[in-house]
Write a structure and sequence with these properties.
The chain has 723 residues and is α+β, with helices and mostly antiparallel strands. The chain contains 24 helices and 16 strands. Strand 13 (494-501) and strand 14 (505-512) form a beta hairpin. The radius of gyration is 31 Å and the shape is globular. The N and C termini lie far apart (66 Å).
Length: 723
């Protein structure tokens, strides 16, 4: 931009620096403002455009995306079902206006406002800004071809990430790619165990906090492997109050089960604390995994742990973590109940005993009645289940925080997520690498949530306690704020029917409106300590204050949040996002991967070259001539280099000599069928599918509408149990 030679740092530009600056075209002016906004850290949109009588543009202006205010009709819609989009327009007055000069035939800056009333995006957040997200024509053309070849859009996105060297360098988000492809449719190796350890050592070079441990057998074959990076260790330090772990299969060619240890972060999203590959699922193996996990986490124990009820896991937990509150997955218990007690209605009664809170005497009374009603007094499985009731009944577990869940669905969903990156044909080092890719994708989603929390605010004053609502919105992450606001909204259905004033506290008795037979709750407020508690134990179990607390706060006219109901794990700033380069997740010293990196560095330019070549036969012919000349020259260069190139990037790492690849192991589950049995089964006539819930044909229990309706009703009943 020769006409616009400003000669000053963009962050220091003032109105007097810009007014009078000339540009050769309106496109040049627009390009300048877009570059300026990206450097500063805000998003731009077009504002006014004025034309003369001949229809020629004479004035053009651009403004900050936070300019103006959202129309109230979009916020106060009484029929709204979804949560309103986060507020972006907050009255920012920053803008840039140019006018065409008939004398100089140039575009002259007439107005430039540099001040904003909001925070700017950081370097790791700028690529989320809307005006700086755009998929190039060349990449869109490539994406269409890959889509036609049968590649999933998510896989195409991952390919672009590899080509460009990171999510922040693609130029758009995954959602933008989905939208672009949808708009187009609307319009028309084997390496051995030593390489695995080389990969782990390369991770240690990048991340000093990276931890790994392994075990070998008498043949020096790898049997167990545990690893966790610095971000996982940092996450556990903050969010290690609840731990969930489970194993999944068919993730590598050695058939070693993959153990994933997870929890929940301050956004309520899944975070990974560590991985392990194990040879078998014995108590000794799980003891080794937990030992290495605690060693990695500096012997910090979780407060609670949730598993699928595997006996080997239970034994390891009892030996190493006897003080930790252990819960067995409710889904696995109910699934086993179907297999062991063949009486209709038993599962529903058992589910009530798992989910609902009773006194110990009432629980025993209901248990004995259930066994009598369903002829299960002598059922050995039921007897064993009762003996472990302290691990699954809410009567014994309420008040303990398990990440807001009674089942291992968080771990199961994480396993399903990782299966996008893993398959049973991968060598070990590639399985580890793909786990890292999945973990990086998970953290990228967390980074997006963090950016959204910082760059926008939720729509406020939607409840009768607007002051409390604003306080929670300012300190809690968006997801957890919405959970809290839901409790504030539901508190409007409750009344304080009794209010006792003691020497240092208040005790409020809470009753649900027009439901006098409904259980009443007592909320205690300590005036000196400024602490509040409720006998429903929602805060201790779910991690957020209950509706009864807010009803009492409204009755007592409290304008500040009691200190004890603010949980540090939900704060926006409880952690700084782990700002390691996305590219660092993919650095590895294997020559094959270095070669792939070189390919990725030039691929985007090659795509652009191909895009222009297809525009016309003349351009294509010229492109072929240039390509032929270039190929001859590059081939000669490669031959001249010879063996020199092989020594580049020859980094030296610790070599684990003698460690061999593990033998393929047999895992739990159904054994593979022989060909003869498969043929016999295929020859049998297919039976009509019968649903075990509604007893109708044509579907099974997974997509039964009756079951889904019952689940929704039971969820409401579970929630009511805290009331």
């Amino acid at each position: 931009m020769e006409s616009a030679n400003i000669g000053k740092d963009p962050s220091d530009l003032l109105e007097e620096d810009m007014v009078g600056v000339e540009f050769k075209s309106v496109e040049e002016a627009e390009s300048f403002y877009h570059i300026y906004s990206k450097i500063i850290g805000f998003s731009v949109r077009k504002n006014q455009c004025r034309k003369n009588q001949a229809g020629i543009v004479t004035t053009r202006s651009w403004c900050c995306s936070n300019e103006g205010f959202r129309r109230t009709k979009y916020i106060k819609n009484p029929n709204r079902v979804r949560e309103p989009r986060s507020e972006i327009r907050i009255g920012c007055r920053s803008m840039f206006r140019v006018c065409y000069s008939k004398i100089t035939k140039l575009w002259v800056v007439k107005e430039f406002r540099a001040n904003h009333n909001h925070c700017m995006a950081t370097d790791m957040q700028k690529h989320f800004l809307r005006s700086h997200r755009k998929i190039s024509a060349a990449e869109l053309e490539q994406a269409k071809l890959l889509k036609e070849a049968g590649m999933k859009t998510s896989e195409i996105w991952n390919l672009f990430v590899h080509q460009n060297g990171g999510w922040d360098k693609v130029g758009c988000t995954k959602k933008d790619l989905y939208n672009s492809l949808a708009a187009g449719r609307r319009g028309v190796d084997d390496l051995d165990a030593n390489t695995t350890f080389t990969f782990l050592q390369s991770k240690l070079d990048i991340d000093p906090e990276f931890f790994y441990a392994y075990m070998v057998d008498e043949e020096s074959r790898l049997t167990h492997l545990f690893w966790a990076d610095g971000a996982s260790r940092f996450d556990y330090e903050l969010f290690g109050d609840s731990l969930v772990f489970d194993s999944t299969y068919k993730t590598n060619r050695c058939q070693m089960p993959l153990v994933v240890l997870v929890g929940s972060n301050n956004h309520g999203m899944t975070c990974v604390f560590g991985f392990a590959l194990i040879q078998n699922e014995t108590a000794e193996t799980y003891t080794w995994v937990l030992q290495k996990f605690l060693e990695c986490m500096k012997d910090k124990l979780p407060e609670t742990i949730l598993t699928d009820g595997c006996r080997s896991m239970n034994k390891a937990i009892e030996d190493l973590m006897p003080s930790v509150v252990h819960r067995t997955c409710s889904w696995h218990i109910l699934n086993n109940a179907i297999k062991h007690v063949h009486e209709e209605g038993f599962v529903g009664e058992l589910r009530n005993l798992i989910k609902r809170y009773y006194s110990v005497d009432e629980f025993d009374l209901r248990w004995n009645k259930m066994l009598l009603d369903y002829n299960a007094e002598n059922n050995e499985w039921a007897k064993a289940l009762y003996s472990s009731r302290h691990q699954w009944a809410d009567t014994h577990l309420r008040g303990s925080y398990f990440g807001g869940s009674t089942a291992t669905n968080r771990c199961e969903s994480m396993n399903a997520f990782l299966k996008r990156f893993l398959d049973e044909k991968l060598p070990l080092w590639r399985a580890l690498q793909h786990c890292e890719h999945g973990l990086a994708a998970l953290r990228y989603g967390e980074l997006g949530k963090h950016a959204a929390d910082k760059l926008s605010t939720p729509v406020l004053k939607r409840t009768s306690m607007s002051e409390i609502e604003e306080q929670f919105a300012s300190i809690y992450t968006r997801n957890m704020f919405l959970e809290v606001r839901n409790q504030i909204t539901r508190s409007e259905k409750y009344n304080v029917i009794r209010h006792h004033k003691l020497k240092a506290s208040y005790i409020c008795t809470i009753e649900k409106y027009l439901l006098k037979d409904h259980p009443k709750r007592k909320v205690t407020f300590k005036r000196i300590e400024r602490e509040m508690s409720c006998d429903c134990y929602w805060l201790e179990t779910k991690g957020i204050p209950c509706r009864h607390v807010f009803a009492a706060m409204k009755h007592l006219h409290l304008s500040d949040i009691p200190r004890n109901i603010i949980k540090n794990r939900w704060l926006k700033e409880c952690k700084d996002i782990y700002l390691s380069s996305p590219d660092a997740q993919r650095r590895f010293v294997n020559p094959d991967m270095i070669s792939s990196k070189r390919y990725g560095g030039i691929n985007s330019q090659a795509n652009l070259f191909l895009y222009y070549c297809k525009k016309s036969p003349k351009v294509q012919q010229r492109g072929m001539e240039l390509m032929s000349t270039l190929l001859v020259e590059m081939q000669k260069m490669v031959e001249d280099v010879g063996e020199e190139e092989k020594t580049i990037n020859g980094a030296v790492h610790e070599v684990h000599d003698g460690i061999k690849e593990p033998h393929p192991v047999a895992t739990k589950g159904r054994p593979p069928q022989s060909k003869s049995s498969q043929q016999n089964s295929s020859q049998k006539s297919a039976k009509a599918r019968i649903c075990r819930v509604c007893k109708k044909s044509g579907h099974d229990y997974r997509n039964c509408k009756v079951r889904k309706r019952k689940c929704e009703e039971s969820m409401e009943e579970d929630d009511d149990d805290f009331e």
